[in-house]
Write a structure and sequence with these properties.
By secondary structure, the protein is an all-alpha fold. The protein contains 2 helices and no strands.
Length: about 50
């Protein structure tokens, strides 16, 4: 194989894998939004404005 294109592989999407990726992305999105909001809710409003 000299200079040729790479072999082509057709992707295989399994329903279980798609569901697991969806759950992971949902969990990470929730954590990325809830953790900073929870942390900010523990501050007083004046302290939050100063930061």
């Amino acid at each position: 194989m000299s200079g040729g294109a790479a072999p082509h592989f057709a992707p295989i999407f399994l329903a279980n894998d798609l569901f697991n990726v969806w759950l992971l992305s949902l969990f990470l999105s929730m954590a990325a939004g809830v953790y900073p909001a929870w942390k900010a809710s523990r501050l007083s409003p004046l302290e939050a404005l100063r930061r």
